[in-house]
Design goal:
The complex is a heterodimer of chains A (372) and B (413). Chain A is an alpha+beta fold. Chain A has eleven helices and eight strands. Chain A is 48% helix and 14% strand. Chain A has a four-stranded mixed β-sheet. In chain A, strands 2-3-7-6 form a four-stranded antiparallel β-sheet, with no helix packed on it. In chain B, the strands form five sheets. Chain B has a five-stranded mixed beta barrel. In chain B, strand 2 and strand 3 form a beta hairpin. The chains are: A alpha+beta (372), B alpha+beta (413).
């Protein structure tokens, strides 16, 4: 694919097809909007850009993905945690890498068409950064795995059809050896989803309780007790290309912040101008780092060392944008609006997908080679 | 625009690094700048001041990407800041078709200083200075020089009076290219002090542990790596934009110099902290880098770069292609595996090696070759049997191929 043609094609299609209605903030209306938009992208040939053709994707690379999201952002759409994201960015790629033919057949097509919403059942009350300490139990009984325990911070569990669920199936084994990765149907009896309101007022978070939930053993992905390695391939995806898309959005966020400063008549305040300038430079560097990731990445792979190094830069910039918006708004920051909400949402940036503390350990040890 | 480096561009950096290591070692640096005369001539002979000058003028006919590669090395080596003006002076002369002056500049016969109002940095005896404004660059006379003690004794600092204009060339891209050279020197410093810190924190022991094992220190080093990486990414991107004369080139240069100044200044401060009291001593390299970063940070007026960043309209993206390869390959201190031994006998046993530093505990190897790999308590892969024969070779090769961080290698086949 010629990349210039690809960009033109994306720009034209987005101009004609981007959703006219604003995205509802919560509940089934949000789910419906997200799923319909996913289906429209699929029909237009824009879903699964880097998925293999045999699974309904286009078999393209990271560069096309970046160009697509650049155009996506430029046409005014926001890239945000969408209830189709876990399916398209985590569950799908994990099943492609580790699922069996039956599992692929049952889920991959529907995921691309926006027919299945997924959530991720990893974190537990006692297992955050130390994920391998998880305790939610899965006991083999006949052809079923009987699951009892709790997950928490599960985004979109309340609207999800399926869950990527990590359970401990061999408590006697070493921590990382006795875990299984299983496809959990969220409509099974014994599952109780309770919403948790987050700091920004959103209702995406949930805690999920499992009371002897019977999941067919055929839903185990890869081998029983081999779920740690399946989950790690999934985390590698989460820390890698998916983050690039959010990073590309930052340029637009800064442009909007500069507009806000002009509207409020504070753009020429020397202190604010210096911070806005630094923010824009940082957002531009995020794009440069995305292209660097492309240049460093052989087709079909991604470069964890460089994407890991970009991540703290992005998450800290995002939080600085929140603080900047408050300083621009002054007393206007008393209102709950898009700006103040984003200021609050940005607190998740240095926690979700691995805290910044863990990630700086990883950079120090794995990228720089400092001792543990 | 095409991202990525050609082999020739890689060579520019390699050659410069080798030359600077032997001719300008960091350990043998005296203050005052005068001793650089011989170095200056040698660098002129190497063509370093004419990388971006058309071949018709005796230059190398290259562009901003190549210049930036060189100046990153010059920054790392604490080479004279006067080199900035030497290159900029030639751009002006070529643009203004002043062949006579250009030749003089290219051989180091005229050594202009760099004007940072109201000072001049590294002015030569000829009394000429390079002055940047928003429209272009100019060469001016410089009168009544009065030396002033500077924060960096290896840079000659003087006050004086700006005299008449000798020659100027208006091209908005020229000040941007000068900013890129400054940014490149700052990136070189930001990376050099990052590497200094990583090396020192890996060796220096307190409480019976290398200090780099303590998270407070480790995270500071990680922050240094993040800043250097971001600045370098933006610098390289901006240099490609300038090489293509893209409409947003000046905006990208402003972003590069903003991030590079911040990376250099903050990394230098962190580097002193990582070194403790020794980093506070005057002759220590940590101290030299810090004072040099401050000089370079003043070479581009921060408020002007900021104004450009705040006032430029949103950028319309253009096509960018990527040349596959090791674009800024050296930006992270990665440990590359040694090459395989191609000469070994067929049928021999194969040695399996896990790079503990690269391993991130993904544990994919366990699923492909559970007989060969296990995880230790720190969730890093360990090798259960160091040598495998034909029976396990296929699964080990699968593990090698599937490892997301390329931490496994084999030897002996």
């Amino acid at each position: 694919v010629d990349i210039d043609d690809f960009r033109d094609e994306a720009r034209t299609w987005l101009a004609e097809n981007k959703p006219a209605e604003p995205r509802p903030q919560s509940g089934q209306a949000m789910r419906q909007w997200d799923c319909e938009w996913q289906l429209r992208q699929y029909d237009g040939g824009w879903a699964g850009l880097d998925w293999p053709v045999e699974y309904g994707g286009r078999g393209l690379g990271l560069l096309e993905r970046i160009v697509w999201y650049e155009e996506y952002v430029q046409c005014g759409l926001r890239i945000e945690p969408n209830c189709t994201v876990v399916a398209t960015a985590h569950a799908g790629p994990t099943l492609i890498a580790r699922g069996n033919d039956e599992q692929k057949h049952r889920h991959l097509g529907p995921i691309l068409r926006g027919e299945q919403v997924w959530c991720q059942g990893f974190s537990e009350p006692g297992s955050g950064s130390d994920l391998a300490s998880l305790r939610c139990r899965g006991v083999v009984d006949g052809d079923d795995l009987v699951v009892t325990g709790q997950k928490v911070w599960t985004s979109f569990a309340h609207v999800a059809d399926y869950q990527e669920l990590l359970v401990r199936t061999d408590p006697g084994a070493a921590r990382h050896r006795g875990i299984s990765w299983v496809i959990c149907d969220m409509r099974l009896p014994g599952i109780d989803v309770r919403p948790i309101a987050s700091i920004d007022g959103e209702q995406h978070f949930n805690e999920v309780f499992y009371d002897e939930v019977r999941i067919p053993l055929s839903n185990v992905v890869d081998e029983l007790d081999n779920g740690w390695s399946v989950a790690m391939s999934n985390l590698a995806i989460e820390r890698g290309p998916i983050a690039l898309e959010y990073q590309l959005r930052t340029i637009r966020d800064v442009d909007e912040l500069i507009c806000l400063a002009r509207e409020r008549g504070v753009a020429s305040d020397a202190g604010l101008a210096a911070r806005l300038a630094r923010a824009r430079a940082g957002a531009m560097a995020l794009r440069a780092m995305a292209y660097h990731a492309v240049a460093m990445t052989p087709p079909g792979e991604f470069a964890p060392a460089v994407t890991l190094t970009a991540r703290p830069f992005w998450t800290e910039l995002r939080q600085e944008l929140g603080r900047l918006s408050l300083d621009i708004l002054g007393a206007g920051g008393l209102e709950l609006n898009g700006w103040t909400q984003e200021w609050l949402t940005a607190f998740s940036a240095t926690i979700a997908g691995g805290t910044k503390d863990i990630q700086k350990n990883v950079i120090g040890e794995r990228v720089l080679g400092l001792p543990r | 625009m095409k991202l990525g480096l050609t082999p020739e561009q890689d060579q520019i950096a390699d050659t410069a690094r080798q030359f600077l290591a032997s001719e300008l070692p960091l350990t043998a640096r005296a203050d005052g700048g005068r001793e650089h005369d011989a170095l200056w001539r040698k660098c002129a002979e190497l063509g370093w001041f004419g990388l971006g000058i058309p071949e018709a003028y005796g230059g190398a006919g290259l562009g901003p990407v190549d210049e930036v590669l060189l100046f990153r090395e010059l920054g790392r080596a604490l080479a004279p800041v006067g080199f900035l003006a030497a290159v900029a002076g030639q751009w002006i002369a070529v643009g203004a078709r002043d062949a006579r002056r250009q030749v003089t500049l290219s051989i180091g016969g005229l050594r202009p200083g760099l004007f940072v109002s109201p000072y001049v940095l590294d002015a030569g005896p000829d009394g000429a200075v390079v002055v940047a404004d928003s429209a272009g660059l100019a060469l001016h006379e410089w009168a009544e020089q009065v030396p002033v003690p500077g924060v960096d004794p290896s840079v000659r600092l003087a006050r004086g009076r700006l005299g008449g204009q000798l020659v100027r060339y208006d091209d908005v891209l020229l000040p941007a290219r000068l900013e890129l050279l400054v940014a490149a020197m700052q990136v070189g410093i930001a990376e050099a002090v990052r590497d200094m810190s990583v090396a020192y924190c890996g060796e220096r022991t307190q409480f019976d542990r290398p200090i780099g094992a303590f998270q407070a220190v480790k995270h500071r080093c990680a922050d240094m790596a993040v800043r250097a990486y971001a600045a370098h990414a933006q610098l390289t991107f901006a240099a490609h934009m300038a090489g293509d004369r893209a409409p947003a080139a000046a905006l990208h240069a402003a972003a590069a110099v903003t991030l590079a100044n911040e990376a250099a200044m903050r990394n230098c401060a962190d580097n002193i902290q990582n070194h403790g009291a020794i980093g506070f001593t005057r002759e220590h390299t940590a101290s030299r880098y810090t004072r040099r970063a401050q000089v370079l940070a003043q070479c581009v007026e921060p408020t002007k770069a900021a104004a450009r960043l705040v006032h430029a309209p949103p950028e319309r993206y253009e096509a960018i292609q990527s040349r596959q390869g090791d674009w800024f390959a050296s930006q992270v201190a990665r440990r590359e595996p040694e090459g395989r031994n191609e000469m070994s006998e067929p049928g021999a046993r194969v040695r399996v090696i896990v790079d503990e530093v690269k391993c991130e505990g993904h544990a994919l190897c366990l699923s492909y070759a559970p007989e060969v790999f296990d995880m230790n308590d720190e969730e890093r892969a360990v090798v259960l049997r160091e040598e495998v024969g034909d029976d396990l070779l296929a699964s080990v090769e699968n593990a090698v191929a599937q490892c997301p961080v390329q931490a496994i290698r084999t030897e002996g086949r």
